[in-house]
Amino acid sequence: MEPIRNYVNEEVKNQPPIVDVPKRVKKRKKKKTWVPGLLLLTPILLFVFGFFIVPMLYILYLSFIVTDDVGATDAVYSFQNYIQFFTDSYYLSSLWITVKISLYTVGLCLFLAYPVALTMAKSSPRVRGYIALLIASPLLVSIVVRNFGWYLLLLPNGTINQLLIDLGLITAPLELLFSEIGVIIGLSNAYLPFMILAIATSLYNIDPSLEKASAILGASPLRNFFSVTLPLSLPGIVSGCVLVFSLSMSSYVTPALMGGANVPMMPVVAYDQINNLLRWTFGSAISYVLLATTLITVIAVTRGFELSKFKEVFR
Amino acid sequence: MKKIMSLCIVLLLLAMTACSPSAPKSNQASTSSKESNKQITIAGNGGKIEKVIREEIAPKFEAETGIKVNYLAGLSGEILSKLELQKNAPKIDIALFVPLDVYRANEKGLIDSVDETSVPNLKNLDSKYVAFENLTTPAFGLVIAPAYNTKTFEQNGIKPIESWNDLARADYKGKTAFADISNDWGFNTLYSLALANGGNEDNLEPGLKKAKELAGYSATFYKNSTQMMPALQQGAADVTVMGSYVTADLAVNSGVPLKMVVPKEGVYMNAFNAGLVKNTPNKEAAIKFINYLISEEAQKATADQGFYPVVQGISIPEKYEEVIGLKDTDKIYTFDIKKLAESRAEWTDRWSKEVTPQLGTLVKK
């Protein structure tokens, strides 16, 4: 129905106003709608400014200082920290590992989430509610506790390896723990609900008559899925991927617990620099490189989809 | 339906807040000027130390003095970075540090020293535990030493550990639990390996070389030392280097057949140190607590949790003797923490770049 409404709005806009409203009155009217909105937003704006923007700016400021001493009076400003990051293969490889693991996590989450979201969309509202509750329930358990659970499952002599050996599928235990695989498993487990709910929400919004229409026109169920359902759910897929990707990029607990020293993801490296070596300034620079990488990737992917042949879906 | 969905969303949001980086929950109470000196905040390791302070020391101290004790759990390094940020308005009155952090805290002007006039119990202190120029008060004694699972060693016919160099052996098939360099136990392992191979505070190079071999024979180095305990309990690791109080706890209270070894090159004896935070508004109460911490009563309570008492005339309980008891013939060393603290960052960097990539390369499947 959307295009018709747009069309009507367009018409109204293009017509000259029926009654000539004096300019002053118009202005006041505008003000009235604007002020209450801002008032409602004031608490969150203050909160975000005080507890997010200010600390982030402080960290940005720190990242340009060379000395390790916070609050030093003889601070020297330069790009030294960033230069050090980009000229040292250790930190570059850490960035690469972080991006790689995050991408794998997004892929695994997408693969696991889509069928669930589809099931939810096809179920009755009642069943849908129960599934949503089941999906969200693991989030009630702290991520630290869940990671310790995975740890016990994935140990070389843990449940999963033991089961696979007993079934005769493998002869020696798989290296599930302290490897990239372990971190990907842990992260996917943690962030799967975000992906499912994001996709499910966009699936709910698909007009069922579209699928009927396409079936009437002779599309097989498979064709129907790839030509109608999948493209229309793209906004959900993209927002789910963006969410999971950003969360994975910045996760600390899972890489530290499941990866040990073997998987030095960026948040772990930044934490070590700040908390163990007290190199606040270099740690801050690492954080900003991480933030920039996440932002650029997310914006590029989102813009890419918005400009693609599916751009209509994102309107 | 809508209700259930909205419930889910609320749950999600709750979980998101719970997932966010695990900043230790601060249970410090703000001390308003009116009731200052009525409560103090101590920051120290979670786990054993937190337990003994919360359950034993703090209640008795409060009963005696009326001063309430809040405990803020965190790693030594985390506490140090927190103090650095709170430099001008400290919210922590006493910080418990490992020796290397005592030096760093002093360098950054974050702690005040105490003396016998205000802390009379200092006169009973065993000088072995003093970290650095009497800046802080040692309170929880320990050695950082190897330990191994006696049962699996016997079953597999592995020779007991006698030297730090015995930690790098193919026999363990990668089933080791060593802490990463960022951890105090890990850094001490590097230093001890250096010492065992002809190095010293000025030159940890031989230690780094040996550590590469150690990494080769290990599946991982643990980023989080609390994970090492379940690894030993679950049989995922048979060999470790950790604080003696943890070995004692695992062996005596959790029934893991662990035994601590004092290698022939010796072990590093040290203590968690109580440092008086500079500019604290509760100085008087904090000093009282420090004095109580090294009283006979408090030291007996810490010994009961597996720490070595830092005052003369108290011994560890019988039950720990077999696992972590030290003999007179055992070689004990302390080191120049100034030199190590200053070179720590450099060695940490080199460890991450040279030693960590070797992890698991020599483990035979």
Protein described:
The complex is a heterodimer of chains A (315) and B (365). With 315 residues, chain A is an all-alpha fold. Chain A is built from 14 helices and no strands. Chain A has a single domain, classed as MetI-like fold. The two termini of chain A are 14 Å apart. Chain B is built from 13 helices and eleven strands. About 6% of the residues of chain B have low confidence. Chains A and B meet through helix 5, helix 6, helix 8, helix 12 and helix 13 of A and helix 1, helix 3, strand 7 and helix 13 of B. Chain B: It comes from Peribacillus asahii.
CATH architecture group name of chain A: Orthogonal Bundle
Which stretches of chain B of 5+ consecutive residues score pLDDT under 50? 14-36
- Tell me the CATH architecture of the largest domain in chain B: 3-Layer(aba) Sandwich
Largest interface: A-B, 53 and 49 residues
Output the CATH homologous superfamily of the largest domain in chain B.
Answer: Periplasmic binding protein-like II
Count of discrete domains of chain A: 1
Overall 3D geometry of chain A? Answer: globular
Q: CATH topology of chain A, anyone?
A: MetI-like fold
- Number of structurally distinct domains of chain B: 2
Rg of chain A, nearest Å: 25 Å
Order of helices and strands of chain A: HHHHHHHHHHHHHH
Brief account:
Chain A: The chain crosses the membrane at residues 33-61, 95-118, 130-153, 181-204, 225-248, 285-305. The complex is a heterodimer of chains A (315) and B (365). In chain A, 75% of the residues lie in helices and 0% in strands.
